Amino acid sequence: AEAAPPEDLVALVGTGGTTGRPKGVMLTDRNLEAMSAITLMSYPFGGRPVYLAQAPLTHAAGVLCFPILARGGEVVIMAKPDVGRFLELIERHRVTHTFLPPTLIYMVLGHAALDSTDLSSLQCFWYGAAPISTARLAEALDRIGPMAQLFGQSEAPMMISTMAPAEHRRPDGTIDTSRLASAGRPSPLVNVAILDENGRPVPRGERGEICVRGSLVMAGYYRNPEATTEASAHGWHHTGDIGFLDDDGYLYIVDRAKDMVISGGFNVYSAEVEQALMAHDAVRDCAVIGLPDEKWGERVTAVVQPQSGAEIDTDELIAFVKQRIGSVKAPKQIEIWADLPRSAVGKVLKTEIRSRLTGN
Fold it and tell me: Pick from 301, 294, 292: which is nearest to 329 by CA?
C-alpha cells in the first residue's frame, strides 16, 4: 500500500485543559515522526527497550510508545496509578524506559518499597508535564537513577527541549544542582526563541514567551481558526509559557503566562514560589495561585499537601519561604489539604483549586 502523505492528520489530541476549555490539536504524521526522531536522538536507547506506560495513554505516556515501537520495543501498560505495582513491574519486566509526572514521582520517593526494588534495568526515567521540585529531583537522581526531562505540549508534542540523564550531572558524577531547575536544551530539529509581546527576540537571559518553529508544531486547532491564528502570530508557535535561555543554551521555564500573580505591582511567578515550598521536608506537593485582594490586587495563595504523617505550621512555612525568596513572593495565605485535585494525567488543576477557594 502507498504510504500516507506526511501532512495527513493522524491524531486529534485534547489540550490539557488546566487553564481553560480544552482545544482539539491536529497532529500530522510528520509531527509524530519528528517527535519520535528527537526522542531517539536525545536519550539513551541500548538494546531492545521495555517501556512501562501508565494510563491514560491519551497524553505523554501514550505518545512515548511511538519511539519505543520504532525500536521494536515492548510496552507494558498499567491501567491505573499504583506506585507499589509500578515498582514491581519495573523489576519484573526489566523496564528500561518509563514516564511519570512530578506528583507521582513524589509518591514513588515516599513509597516504602523503593529502596529495596531492583531498578538497575532503567536507562531513562522521563519526567515532565509540570514543574518538578529541584530538591525532590536531586533525591530521585540518588535513589532512582537515570532521570530524564522533557518539555513539550500537545501542540508541539513532548520534545521542545530535552535533558538526558547524563546532563543532570557534572563530569565528575556529582549532581549539577544549578541545572536541575532548567527544562534542558532546545531539541534537535526544533527552533526555540524567547519573544516579547511584539514578536521580537529578547536578549539572552531576559524573560519572554517561549516560541517554537519546526516540523514538531501542530497543523492547528480543530475547527478553531481564531485560536490557530493567535497561537501562530509572527510566524512562531506561541507556547503560553514564560522563560529564558541561559549562556549555555539551557531553557528555563519561569511560569505559565496565565499562572503569573501580580501582587503589589510585582510579577510573582507561581512556579518559583512552589519550588520554595517544595524545599520544605514536610511538603509533599503544592499549588500557588493569585486570589483577588483589595490591598495587593492579588494575594499569593498556596495550597499545600503534607507528607504523610507530617504536621505543618503555616506561619513557620511562610517564614521558611520568605527566607528563600523574600516577603513579596511569599504566600500571604496557606491552606492545608490532604490531597490536591489532579487531572487524569496527574497535573494539578489550578482552576479547580481557585473555584474551591473562591466558591465560584
Answer: 301
φ/ψ of 273, rounded to 5, equals: -70, -40
pLDDT in tens, 337-349: 999 998 877 788 8
Do 158 and 63 meet the contact criterion of CB atoms below 8 Å apart? yes
Q: Show the DSSP H helices in 145-256 as ranges.
A: 225-231
* CATH code for position 148: 3.40.50.980
Of the three residues 210, 225, 256, the one that is the final residue of a domain is 256
- In this structure, are 214 and 172 located in the same domain? no
Amino acid in position 294: E
Same domain, 80 and 221: no
Q: What's the CA gap between 331 and 270, in Å, rounded? A: 10
H helix runs in the chain, sequence order: 29-42, 60-63, 65-70, 83-93, 102-109, 134-143, 225-231, 270-278, 314-325, 350-358
Task: Please report which confidence band the pLDDT of residue 101 belongs to, taking 50, 70 and 90 as the band edges.
Answer: confident
Please tell me whether residues 45 and 168 are part of one structural domain: yes
97-100 and 147-153 strand pairing: unpaired
Which residue type is seen at 262?
I
**With DSSP H G I counted as helix, E B as strand and the rest as coil, what are the percentages for the chain, rounded to 5?**
30, 30, 40
Q: Which letter does DSSP use for residue 160 in this model?
A: E
Q: How far is 331 from 147, CA to CA, in rounded Å?
A: 30
What are the pLDDT digits (tens) for 13-30? 887 554 456 789 999 999
As a whole number of Å, the end-to-end CA separation of the chain is 55
Residues 108 and 58 in one domain: yes
Count of CA atoms in the C-beta half-sphere (13 A) of 288: 28
> Helix 270-278 crosses helix 314-325 at what angle (to 10 degrees)?
120
Using alpha carbons, select from 293, 295, 256, 292 the residue that is nearest to residue 129: 256
Owner of C-alpha cell 527576540? 201
Contact 290, 357 (CB under 8 A): no
